[in-house]
Model the fold of this input.
Amino acid sequence: MKKKRKSALLEFTAKGIYCAQAKVYLDPWRGVDKAIISHGHADHARWGSKHYITQEHNVPILQARLGDLHYEGKAYGDPFTINGVKFSFHPAGHVPGSSQIRVEYKGEVWVFTGDYKVQEDGISTPFEPVRCHTFITECTFGLPVFQWAPPASVHEQINSWWAKNSATKTTSLLMGYSLGKAQRLLKHLDPSIGKIFTHGATEKMTQVLRQYIDFPATELITRETTKKDIEGHLVLAPPAVMGSSWAKKLGQHATGYASGWMAFRGARRRRAVDKAFVLSDHADWQGLLSAIKATGCENVITTHGYTELFAQYLNEQGWNARTEKTQYEAETLEAEVVES
Done:
């Protein structure tokens, strides 16, 4: 008689990553009864589920993005059990409120990372390795070419660029995703150079996070804001404004874009920005490898990014690695939807 094959603790299904024993989904891409959410970005936190469980600081972010739904917040490291399965959230360092999700059942431990980075950004709870048997990892920047510079040096570049523009009364339009990247940029801007104005989508998420994080003052751009008001100052906005009628109303301005993809010259040309800043909220090549090693895991599942190449490399290094398809988009060069 053949031995019955042991089912996986987490399975990849048409609705998302599923824990059958607990009957819950992790970051589902379709509406389900119960969803455990790693962070607030739209590809991981989608509308339509009946009940959401997430890290407590992510609750107001979900409320702002998804509306008045049923949320349950948990502190980092605070375990909760569903039908014998123990879950807990652990810092992912990706954006404020982001978490790795630890899943344990009968001594077997899996960790789903969602998205993560190992560099500290000054606004997110820093990444903490979690010991496990199976590690589900993104690999958005899973190639050796991606090696991030120290964040402090990038922020210095940004402030120098702004100061140079300000000296010629040129407005600086700095673009980054409205949740996480924009606030990371804001946290390290030098207010002594000038005022910091914001697009509505950026301001919305910044106001949500001000209850946890001390940011420089910002001014929302409205219909009443004139070109003279913002001349020589800095405007924080999502990438979607690039080349838009909204951006044209700013008058003479220089454009800057903060993204890990700016490491590629081709990507810089594609976005047609004046200044590119290599700054990502995802782990670089060494960050991915160090995070995986720190878990002590035997098995690795790569979910979005350079999945095949990264899994192949991990197998060559002695891990049992494979890929799984998901609907997570990671950090792309495409314009995010603007919520004005």
